[in-house]
Structures are given as C-alpha cells and as structure tokens.
Amino acid sequence: MKVIFQKFLGRASDLADTEPILGLFLGAALLAVFLAAFAQGKPAAEHNGKSGLVWMLYGNFTRLLWAALLVVFLVGTVAVLRTYLRQSVANFQRTHGRVTTANYNAVQTIWGAEQQQGELRVEIYNDEEVTERIESEDLTKPAVLRKKTVRRFATGNPFLAARHDVTLRQNPRKKGSALYGGYETDCRFTWQLKNPASGTNKSNLIFPLPAAGAMYDELSATLNGQDVLPQVQIREGALVLAREVEPNEPMEFRLAFKSRGMSHWYFQVREAREVRDFTLTLTLPDLPKDKLNYPEGCMTPTGIQPTADGAGSMLAYRLDHALSNKGMGVALPQLPQPGATTNAVLAEIERAWVLLFAMLALSLTLASARHAVLLTALFGAATAFAYGLLGDFSDLLFGFWGTGGLVLLPGFTLLAWLLVRAVRGSLGRWLALQMILIGIVYPCVAGLDPERQSLYLNLCAVVFLAFAASLLMKQVAQQAPLVEKPVVAG
User: Fold this and answer.
1) pTM (2 decimals)?
2) In angstroms, how far apart are the furthest CA atoms of the chain?
3) Among 47, 201, 291, 475, which has the highest number of CB atoms less than 10 A from its own CB?
4) 204 forms bridges with which residues in the sheet?
5) pLDDT tens string 253-310
6) DSSP character at residue 484
7) Helices marked H in 40-144
8) What pLDDT, in 10s, does the model give residues 62-95?
9) Can you tell me the distance from the alpha carbon of 135 to that of 219, in angstroms, rounded to the nearest whole number?
10) Taking phi first (over 0 means left), then psi (-120 to 50 degrees means alpha), and beta for anything else, what does residue 167 get?
11) Distance of CA 368 to the CA centre of its chain
C-alpha cells in the first residue's frame, strides 16, 4: 500500500511540475469527488436504526472507504487512458516523419554530406638548394656540409577578381518514414590571377573539395581558355594544378562541376588575405525569400532578388578590398514531414484530454449529477478512443482533415449529444459545448499554431474555471440556510 501511495504522489508531483494548470484542475476534481462521496453517505446515527459510538465510527469508515475507492478508480482511469493516448501518439510518430540520426547518416552516405566549400588557394614559390655547415664539437674533426632544399614563397596577393555562380536546387531524400533535406548544385568558379613575383616561379592552384566522399560530375578545369583537367591532381581532399608561371603572368582559372549534398551549403575564404573584387551569386530556384535561412557564422547577402518566375531567390555576396573569414551560404528549411498536421494535433491531445476529464469530473460532481463518476469514466474513455482513431485512420481518410471531418468531428458530436441526454437541462448543453471546445477546437488550434499553445490552454482554463465557479456558487446558494424575517407587532 505504501508503494502504491508513493507512486501516486510521484505521478501527481510530475504532473504538477510539467503541467501545473492540468494538475490543479485534476486535483480539484478528485477532491470534489472525494468530499461529495463522503458527504452523501447516511449519517452514522441512522445506520439501520442503530446508534452509538461503534456504529458512528463504522459508518464514517465505510463512507471514507467508499470515497477513497471512487478517487482511486478515477486515478486508475486517468493513468490507463493517458498511457493509451501516449502509445497512440508514439505509434503514429514511429511511422510518420520520424527523423533519426542513423537515417540521416545513411542518407549522407548514399546521397552526400553537407558541403563546406573553401576558396581557391594559390602557392607561388621557388625551391632553392642551400648548403648547411654543421660544426663538430671535436675541433679535430672537420665540419659537416649538408645540402637541403628551402622553399621560398613569393609575397603579394595574386588574386585580382573572383566571379562565382552557384545554382542550388532542393531534392529531398526519404529514408524510413521521414524526409531529409537534400540538394543538387551546379557550381562555376572563375578567378583572375596575376603572378606578383618578378621572376619565373612554380605555382600550385589548390581548390579544396567541399565534402569528402561526395560525387562530382561534369568536372571541368581551364586555364586561360585551355583545358588543364588532365594535369589536375587530387591530393588531400583538394584539386591541385601545378605549373610554372612567368613574371607578372596573368591567369584566368575556371572550374566547374555538379554535386549534391544535405542540409546546408557553405562557402568561406579561409586564407587570411585581402579579398578583392569578389562576387558570389547563389541562385535558389525553389527557395523564396521568406524561407531563407543561413548557417551559423554566415554573413547576410549584400543583395537578394527574386528569380524570374518569382518562385525562388538570388543571393549576391559582393566584397572588395575586404578582410573577412565569415561564411556565405544557405541552410535548407525544415521539410513538412508525412502526417505533420496529424502529428502536431496528436501532440496536444494529452493536455486536451486531461483537461476534458477534469472538467467532466468536477462539473458533474458540483452539479450533483447522478452517476457522476461513472459518466466521467465512460466519456473519458470514449474521447480517448476517438483520439486514437484519429491516428489510425489518418492514412486511410486523406490525412488529418479527412479524418477530422469523417471520424473526429462526428465522434465528438455524438458524445456531446449523449452528454446532453445523460445530463438534462442547461448543464448538459454547457458540458457538451465545453467538450467540443476543449476536445476538438483546442488541440487543433494549438497544434497548428505552436507559437501560441499556452494562450489557447489558458483560455480554455479560464472558461472552465468560470463554469466551475458558477456551479459552485449555485451549490452554495442552495445549501445556505434561510433567514426568517422578524415579526413586528402591530
């Protein structure tokens, strides 16, 4: 018994910590049921026409036990049906839009990883052979002469201008039950270079590949209009073109390829140098301006223009005589997952159901309705099953809206009609109205507008509180003793 009581207190404490409003109303409903059941028993003095201390204690004990059993029954009902609702939501989420790290890594392996493109790096140098003299500690021995090659890099910035054009199209990939943001790129890079040294030098044009293990198609490389792709080597994850350059020789280096990646595309001038006459145009044919997002550490574009058809955006980054290592690029927006609307609504049904259960228990008890506890349990179970059917039929009845129109709304309408039949008068109509408000309107609106979830919950709580307060005031007014008017002698 002690273990059960501790577990009950633990669950109550967890609910109060995570959902204080729901914990308050559910606790008030259970307290009202307990007090009403204890007060409705027969007075101990009237128990089978017998009186006495023993019979009084016996009668009070039986009433206390009956009230406690009703509370335990309601608590058990809440626990079982909340578990059912959580399992229904978990089953739906497992088969609809379940994004996992394992699946994301698998898609990266098959399709391509996030691409982080570095700028071209230019090395202009000469290798000079020098003789190094090493004196021995023993003066009787001759010095050792050793030859070695020293690489001397030319000073100066070889970059005159850069014109880069990148077109990125979204191409979502599906793995398991979820969609992952993928894209395809068409990259064209152009650099205007000049040897800053006055003599003949060796040079390395080093272009880092944006992702290890990615696919690069339709690769082309030209220098001053000549195809140099056969001379390009692949070393340490980069394309390297080694050649000799003449004094003050101008060079126009072009590189183009198609590739694909995931999540975001990022460009950065990693080398500490002056960025001259630089322009990067990033064309996003299917990503409008209102959906743009940038990776962490990126600068905002210097200009954003819509595409010719208005469906996309063109981002322009222009720098001249600049010093910056900030990135440039775009992060793909989150994709609408399969069953996203149903999933959003199902995420709110547990709060809605607990509030609905508390409303039924407290309202029926304050109104002294017959079989209040049994009606609360039956209608609570029926609403929970209606939510479960929402997830089960979502794929069969054209998604959330079809299921809501053909299953959820008729189901709650039927329950509201039965509640009006079970509880006569205006009380039944008000209860039916609140059932529709809390059971359908609240989870749908809160699920589709996640930024204002607390607002909708608070509004439903205020309506419920006002209704419960009116019922309580009516009960107090009915139980207040009548005050006799004084008789004035004539």
Assistant:
1) 0.73
2) 150
3) 201
4) 123, 242
5) 999 999 999 999 999 999 888 999 999 999 999 999 999 999 988 999 999 999 999 9
6) P
7) 53-95, 101-110
8) 888 888 899 999 999 999 999 999 999 999 988 8
9) 54
10) beta
11) 45
